[in-house]
Amino acid sequence: MFYETAKGSGLALDPFKAVVVPRPIGWISTLSAAGAANLAPYSFFNAFSDDPYYVAFGSGGRKDTLANVEATGEFVFNLATHELREAMNASSTSRSGDEFELAGLAKAACRLVKPPRVAASPVALECRHFHTVPLPNDAGEVRDWLVIGRVVGVHIDDRFIREGRVDTSAMKPVARLGYSEYATVEQVWRMRRPD
Question: What's the CA gap between 182 and 92, in Å, rounded?
């Protein structure tokens, strides 16, 4: 099949999210300007540079996370794992309040930024806001934004560092597929690039 994005696929559900997979989940914690904690998962998330480190997430709508990042200039990426999947899902609620508390999660202090991190997550990236890019639709309306952050600090649970390498599969990170489907990274294999 082929379809022009402006005309739609004709399928009952949009296939776009089911073909750009798996996507890491940006489980983003922030603080409001008044100091209220916020935690929300974003399935449009990834890393984009390794010297220096940059990560970015896409916000569909002007949600609390986007407002908090722009107000304070800071956010934290927390790795969503299979063990934390229910809490990650609970933190996606639209109910008002502290999502850490709503999801039953303990907070841990960061070292370089003010927002808390998820204490139970094996990885947290402390980030400073670099830039927000508006993503206009065909009519020129902006309903989506790309939020870019520079990573200034990295937390990795020592239990997952083995022989000088991070054992990614042991953490069982959760990735987003299409629709309401997720995957867990448990099998890892290596392939070297040709010289």
Answer: 15
Please check whether residue 110 is in contact with residue 37, taking contact to mean a CB–CB distance below 8 angstroms: no
Q: Which two tokens stand for residue 74?
A: 């800071």
Q: Strand (E) positions, the chain?
A: 23-24, 26-31, 37-42, 45-50, 53-60, 74-78, 107-108, 117-118, 123-136, 142-156, 161-162, 165-166, 174-176, 182-184
Give the three-state DSSP class for 175: strand
Tokens 């009952």 belong to 12
Task: For the full predicted model, state whether its pTM sits above 0.85.
Answer: yes
Beta carbons of 27 and 78 less than 8 angstroms apart: yes
Tell how strand 123-136 and strand 142-156 pair up: antiparallel
Is the CB of residue 175 less than 8 Å from the CB of residue 185? yes
Q: Which pair of tokens denotes residue 191?
A: 């392939």
The pair of three-digit structure tokens given for residue 111, joined into one six-digit string: 């070292």
Structure confidence by residue, pLDDT tens digits, 74-120? 999 999 999 999 999 999 988 788 999 999 999 999 999 999 999 99
Cβ pair 132, 149 in contact under 8 A: no
Q: Which residues partner with 147 through β-bridges? A: 57, 132
